[in-house]
Write a structure and sequence with these properties.
The protein is an alpha+beta fold and 248 residues long. The protein has two domains: 156 residues, no CATH class; 78 residues, no CATH class. The protein is 38% helix and 16% strand. The chain has a three-stranded antiparallel sheet. A hairpin with a 2-residue loop joins strand 5 and strand 6. It is globular, with a radius of gyration of 19 Å. The N and C termini lie far apart (54 Å). Bound molecules: iron/sulfur cluster. Iron/sulfur cluster (SF4) binds next to loops.
Length: 248
């Protein structure tokens, strides 16, 4: 059984550690919407090109929204496509799961307070030398050290929506229907969502917080905040200070 930990011993990854790069093979590496934005900008790919080249879309049991896994290379050991002999070639833009490793984190929903509580686990694979570090880290110090704070903030918001997708909101249409595809676009395809927001009747139908809207014209992270607020309204009719329907 995994234990939530207040403090752990973790070694920073570096070429001198004997397990260097071993953890970057044959992974079920889930990419969250913010991960996709960071990677596709770094790789200078369109959203469509990134999704086509680098991800597998999966629907897990008990979840009614498709999730995105980074496709591993076809080579026998199935390395991550971004792994190079000298390490991670996208290091400054690596996904949240890579930043957090060997710590895992999750959210526990507390019905009493109606809030999510973040918990951390430490269960590294057998080859991992992470637990042999000399310095003790708290999860929050590790998050800061690994530059995962922005990732954590965006993923926490995303996790709240994913928790709501544990019940089927689609009726007979299913997550592959038209509404499900629109919601997927608003989370994972910022190029298409940009067109939808700024080149359709979207702004005639929804009032967006003006400071957010201005930034979202040129910033995909701000656009994603609109996307997540829109999914919440579009699927569950929940408005927020960021997005409200205009009165007709
Ligand atoms: S993105 Fe980088 S750190 Fe993450 S699995 Fe791939 S090579 Fe390893």
């Amino acid at each position: 059984m995994l234990q939530a930990l207040p403090g752990i011993w973790v070694a920073r990854l570096n070429p001198g550690v004997s397990c260097f790069n071993l953890c970057c093979h044959n992974l079920n590496l889930f990419l969250y919407p913010y991960d996709v934005i960071r990677l596709k900008h770094h790789l200078e790919l369109s959203s469509d090109a990134f999704l086509e080249r680098h991800v597998d879309v999966v629907l897990r049991d008990g979840c009614f929204f498709p999730e995105v896994l980074l496709s591993m290379s076809e080579l026998p050991e199935k390395p991550c496509p971004f792994l190079s002999p000298s390490g991670c070639s996208v290091y400054l833009h690596r996904p949240e799961a890579c930043r957090m490793f060997p710590i895992e984190q999750g959210l526990v929903y507390e019905a009493k307070t109606r809030r999510n509580r973040k918990i951390h686990y430490f269960k590294p694979p057998g080859f991992c030398q992470g637990s042999k570090g000399r310095k003790q880290w708290t999860p929050s110090a590790w998050i800061k050290d690994q530059g995962a704070e922005d990732y954590n903030r965006m993923t926490q918001r995303w996790s709240e929506l994913m928790r709501m997708f544990r019940s089927d909101p689609w009726g007979g249409e299913g997550p592959d229907g038209k509404r499900g595809k629109m919601a997927f676009m608003a989370a994972y395809n910022m190029d298409a969502f940009q067109e939808f927001v700024f080149k359709s009747s979207f702004l005639k139908r929804y009032r967006i917080a003006s400071a957010l809207l201005d930034k979202a014209r040129t910033d995909d992270v701000e656009l994603l905040k609109i996307g997540l607020a829109w999914i919440e309204f579009f699927v569950w009719r929940k408005s927020s200070p960021l997005l409200r329907p205009r009165k007709s």
